[in-house]
Design goal:
The chain has 135 residues and is an alpha+beta fold. 27% of the residues lie in helices and 43% in strands. The protein contains 2 helices and 9 strands. Strands 1, 2, 3, 4, 5, 6, 7, 8 and 9 form a 9-stranded mixed β-sheet that branches. A hairpin with a 3-residue loop joins strand 7 and strand 8. The longest helix is centred in the last third of the chain and has 21 residues.
């Protein structure tokens, strides 16, 4: 049996996960990363994407996050998400609403750096839409 560590997934609305797990795959802004027990300490920003949690015994569950950051230590990982939900609970309408909101916000941005960041966020949302929702 693989060594476990404590993982917490927290959104402003609620605590989604707080348990011992074998691994967690996080969509970091610098790339996807797998966290396991005894991981080197690191903090990373999290982009919109899917988190995969592998529990002791191998069962897994997926969650969608819409940004945030993760604090990783050898003993555990705490991910504070701007918003998060189970993939099974995410509706096409909710994701479409978020994409349309991001598009409207993008229209009003004149600062080039802010516009680039908003375009990147919109791209991440549309990629997420294609990855988790059937056509």
């Amino acid at each position: 049996m693989a060594k476990t560590f404590t993982f917490e997934l927290v959104s402003p609305e609620r605590l989604l996960v707080s348990e011992e797990v074998e691994q967690v795959v996080i969509p970091g802004t610098e790339g996807e990363m797998t966290v396991m027990a005894d991981h080197a300490p690191v903090m990373t920003s999290v982009k919109p994407g899917v988190i995969t949690v592998v529990r002791a015994g191998g069962a897994s569950e997926r969650f969608v996050v819409f940004g945030g950051f993760a604090d990783i230590t050898p003993e555990g990982c705490r991910l504070l998400a701007e918003s998060a939900t189970r993939v099974a609970d995410l509706s096409r309408e909710e994701l479409t609403r978020r994409i349309e909101h991001a598009r409207r916000e993008l229209e009003g941005i004149r600062d080039e750096a802010a516009r680039t960041k908003a375009e990147e966020f919109l791209g991440q949302l549309t990629t997420l839409e294609g990855a988790i929702l059937p056509a």
